Amino acid sequence: MKVYIVGVEAGSQKGLLASPYMEKELRVLGYDVEKFPSRDIGSLNRSFQACAQSQALILCPLTGNLSVDAACVHAAAQASQKELIESEEVARHLAKRGKLSQEQIEELALMPEGARIFPCHRSLIPGFEVAGDEFHIVVLPSNPEEQTSLFFSYLFQILNKTSPTPCYSRVLRIMEMGFEQAQEVLQDLTSKELPCVAIYEKRSELIIRISDNDSNRQKAAERCNEAMRAIVQRLGTHVYGIDVNGIEHALALKCAKKNIRIAFAESGSAGLAAKRFHNVDKDEKLIYSVYQCQPEKMDLEKIGINDKIGKTFGPVSANVTAAMALGASKQEEKDILGLGLSLPNAAFKSRKAYVAAVLNGVCMMQELDAGNYHSLTQMTSDAVAKLFNLARKLVDSYPQAPEGSCDAEEAVLEGMGVVPQTAALSLAENNLMEPDNHKKKGRKTAKEKNLPQEVKKAPKGFKGILYRIFPNRDDSGFDKVRKILMWICVCVFMGSMIYLIDFGAQNRKSQANLASLQDEMAQAEKDIADGKVNVSNIEGYPNDYLPKFYSFYQRNEDIKGWIKIDDTNVNFPVVQTSDNDYYHRLGFDKEYDYYGTPYIDYECDVKTPSTNIIIYGHNIRNDGQMFNDLTKYKQLSFYKEHPTVSFDSVYKEGTYKIIGAFITNTEASHDNGNVFEYNHFVNAETEEEFNEFIDEVRRRSIFDTPVDVEYGDELLTLSTCTYEFKEARFVVVARRVRDGEDASVDVDQAVVNEDAYYPAVYADAAEYAKKLGQVKSITIDGKRELTMNVGDTTTLTAKVSPSDAAIQSCTWDSSNKAVVTVDKNTGLITAVGAGTAQITAVADDGGYVDNITITVKGSGKELTGITLDSSSVSLKPEETKTLTATLQPEGAQASLTWKSSDDSIVHVSGNETKAEIKGINAGSAEITVASSDGKYSATCKVTVTASGADENNPSIVFAQSKLSLTVGQPQNIKLSVAPANADIGTVSFSSSSDAISVQNGYSNTDVIVTAQKAGEAVLTATTSTGLQASCTITVKEEGSGETTDKAKLSVNQLVLNPGEEAQLQYSVDPAGTEIVWSSSNPRIADVDQNGYVTTIISLDQTTEVTITMATKDGSASTQTTVTVMGTSGGSSSGSNNNGNNNQNNNNQNNNNQNGNQGAQSDLGLKAKGASVEVGYDKWLDIYVDRPEGDVTVVCSSSDRSIARVDNNGIVTGVGEGTATITITATDNNTGEYQTVTVPVTVTGGGYGYGTNDPTPDEFWFFADRWIWYKRINHNKKSRKQ
Fold first, then answer.
1. Is the peptide bond before 643 cis (omega within 30 degrees of 0)?
2. 896-900 and 914-919: which strand pairing?
3. pLDDT tens digits, residue range 1131-1183?
């Protein structure tokens, strides 16, 4: 297609179009662009006639000059051979917007017959489109913003559909940055041909579209994503959303992710903010309340605010706006985001307007000046956008306070006076100090006054006191020394007092953080018990995580469980990362905290789980916190009172019976070269290895317990420091209570182990213990903050108090070894990478701590970005690969950290710019490398594929991995075999407990279980060929436990190679709920009504397909991803069979599947039935009277064994017969929908299913829809409209 730009030159430097980026994007789409600028109306008509060619698109931008624009309309009508008729819609618009006579209105309201009018508010003459004979004309409105919006949201999308080189695109939305500023920052990117970076300006925001037309979609996507990451790094928090429809859409997504609801309080805006937000939250799942009024009728009492505030400060003021937002946020429900907006109106005129957002007592507020706007309507629209942006910042940083925020109550009292200024102050101090050689007026030296130089008497009063305590020239040598020593003592005393105060403050802060976490868990458990929590369908929360961890997961995705010992201080969250040192001195919110956070060894797999879960925690002796109470197990009496430990992982709750507790060494020299490496025992490869570990634990244990241990038991190991000797460890080992086992322990049988093994160094422990307890504090010498360069070294020293304490030594550690390392014994620190770290000294006696901050500067260039050598990697379990990070620019230096988003799938161990990744289990995860300050990062998607099952190596799995039954309830459970035709021999079924009874089902792979009594049982299937599968069944008493009207659903992910089959494992509660399955792309991965997935035989690009599991009545649904690996190694997330990747449509489909539909309406949806042969495809004749980007179409088949259909309307014949195709069109803006059904008849013949892949043959474009025709077996269709 040829694109012609025709118009009258208006003297704009940008040219005919409002933005030079429009023409650039047209060329990237592969269209030939030619411009026909005209100087007069006569040449304009000739230009239109010259461009009216077959398959041409003519763009005609209006200028705002009424006579010129009227000529453009007439020329368009003449070229398209359409009569001019008066448009009532345009006439109303002209009468409302312009000061025109009736005669002028009638003249300017003439539009070509059949033209589609584009609504506009600022342009006097609206844009429109009209079809000519095999060409098309689009007249663009004169207002630059409206012209840009029409091109960005409509024309680009349509032209991309029919482009010979369609683009892969990403869209970023920016606020609080000017167009020129963005152009300057991104000049190097916008000047490149590919990817094409285009910046479009709107009143409240900038929109940046990144497009690439490379025929290799994977390459195009990688280049676009690389440019996107570069832009995000440069623009930072100015970027409010990626691939979102607007600021309210971005805010809704962020609030939903953090479970935050919004309360609106608006004055003078007619409720515009709530209305705009309602457009993206039609079910009002996020809207908590709405209050609106006019300034003169404000009643603040309705939102809990004293009316005196309004009377004191006035209804349109910063104080009242802050009060409105604060009152809206202080409602009964937790985590309410209050949004306040105050605007003037005709009755209450003011030059100012205010917006405020408040969340948990933190406020952000902004002032608007009416002088910057043409109208109150414009000001109102901009105020709403700025309000949503403030809210976005609060939600982004929650629960921390963002930059530029203030206390909400102070904002009510002080207004804009307490709002921090974003620009740095540059105030200079004036003459605070004078040069030494500057003599002040009126003062003379003693010599100038001719005073005698002999010793003078001490002055009287306050000056006399200073004379006596500070050294002066009249003092004798002895007096000077005496005074100096006195001040040294004073300084030491003050320093000690400051340390004690600071140390106490750190203690109180750490204890307050722990108390807050404990209260949060107690509340979560209470809410679950009361039936208030249901996280089964919350997007972003892992569907196999326990509900009580939801709020913790929102704060820190590293959460892996909770450890608790009754009647002790051990009651904390437990985390896990790929770096065991990461949480050594970091709190749960990843801020420095010398308590650290208990963490699981990086090698442990909590999900599977590993044989032994190892948890480490500090022993804070001075205040008894963290794992200090663990050392009480050195006494048999304490064990008898607390024989069990509670550890609830994010996947399941658990009680563990203690089997032993011992003191051990970590240095070989302390035990004649021997070290018990308990912390390396993670997975037992054999029963012999398992028993050897248990025997060693019992040999070393301080007491003998009656707890039996069997191979296959799940173990828990708790490890902390102890101080009998240097680098000593105290360890407690327990095993999980088995299913159906009584959790009680006969502690009367526990006795002291008289033959317990202790390290050789323990013989001197008694003498060592006599020296303990003398130290009361420790202080690191020198400055509290040091700056170093990469490669620098220095040795730190520390002093304990009192100075005559027997044990003067301490242990050193670093909070970030990628920045600075420290020798734990000598205090020698080495700067290894740019960044900031805390160095902590821990007194070996008493555990007292002190810390200082080290800032390391790189000797190279300043870091501006990070890239990885691979953006996606495929691995098999146990396979490894090396990732390499490149710092930008060349020569830059920085310390890097590596992290896996799911260590149970892929593990990463990084060494600066190189890291080794290792596949663990099938699934997908992201590896992230980031600078230590968090400013720059890069990610690589890693997909781990399990070895596919074949007839020689089949696999079995229960369809339901978990099941809940009530006593007396029977349930048939199906065992799935992959591949389906594999021979697995006979199958036997058994139960781990008498909570259920088991009997054979209707076939070799069916079993019927009946719930007998409350408890838990593991159902195991064993084949005669040696295969095994299991299902965990929980039995409850009838009427007990959590009750809910909504079914709970969860389902796992799958990663398959082309041609492989597998059973999705899922759980349904209550059992027996009827469910249905569907696939977003059955041509790639199909699913039957038992959750069994089959995949396409051959596939080039790795493709992710969404599988939806829903109750038959539609009351609940959940989704999972099936990743089908491509042979080329590339990836195309969510791509369909003809390679399009439309993120917006994906989002819209998700919204529709979540139930966000409006009322049924007539959308002009029409379709015709069809006939197709087995093995062939045909494109259904579907017509919708809506623009392409405004509607989502979903198609389904009543019998997929006869005919299958995708959402593009491609029907595939599978077997002979007739099937009904259901087509639903949904308006993405209003939620209205229309459904029609058509029959499809499938006849015999063809070459078998999937043998031909349709390709586009011809397109035809008209006004508001695109119809794509297919040529099947050279049988060409045509259609006129």
1. no
2. unpaired
3. 444 433 333 333 333 333 333 333 333 567 788 888 888 888 876 778 788 88
